[in-house]
Write a structure and sequence with these properties.
A hairpin with a 5-residue loop joins strand 1 and strand 2. By secondary structure, the protein is mainly alpha-helical. The chain has a two-stranded antiparallel ribbon with strand order 1-2. It has a single domain, classed as Arc Repressor Mutant, subunit A (Orthogonal Bundle), CATH 1.10.10.10. Helix 1 crosses helix 6 and helix 4 crosses helix 5. The model has no long low-confidence stretch (mean pLDDT 88). Helices cover 56% and strands 6% of the residues. It contains 6 helices and 2 strands; from the N terminus they run αααββααα. This is HTH-type transcriptional regulator YwnA. InterPro entries: Tscrpt_reg_Rrf2 (IPR000944), WH-like_DNA-bd_sf (IPR036388), WH_DNA-bd_sf (IPR036390).
């Protein structure tokens, strides 16, 4: 199963933007992430809609931060992506009349729901400037 790396990529982009005095282009970001500038523009569009970045056009144009990283949490970015679940463990429903399958599904779903709530709570406590500080 393919992993969704959008959260990590956005965090990477924002952390690099923090130290830049000049706007950074979609091509520069794409090169940094080894991806296509179209993918970058899609991601940056989400950040722009949320007021985290702005874009300027022209010769010296590019993307720049609009919001200090100490005002943005991991939870903010997670919610920006519209994630529905942090875990990719699937429950089976092939034998929905089976009491054992129903019991297993209940226990797994309850555990994953509890774990997700704890993780999202922790995401809300971590600001992006903490990530940058940790890298130095």
């Amino acid at each position: 199963m393919r992993k969704d790396s959008r959260l990590s990529r956005i965090l990477h982009i924002l952390a690099h933007m923090e130290g830049n005095d000049e706007p950074i282009t979609s091509t520069q970001i794409a090169d940094m992430l080894s991806t296509n500038p179209v993918v970058v523009r899609r991601i940056m569009g989400l950040l722009k809609e949320s007021g985290y970045v702005q874009v300027s056009k022209g010769r010296n144009g590019g993307w720049a931060l609009m919001c200090p990283l100490n005002k943005i949490t991991l939870l903010d970015i997670h919610q920006l992506l519209g994630e529905t679940s942090l875990f990719t463990i699937g429950l089976t429903d092939e034998h929905s009349n089976c009491p054992i399958e129903n019991s297993i599904n209940y226990v797994l779903e309850t555990a994953m729901t509890d774990a997700e709530a704890l993780l999202l709570n922790r995401f809300g406590e971590i600001t992006l400037d903490m990530l940058v500080k940790r890298s130095h």
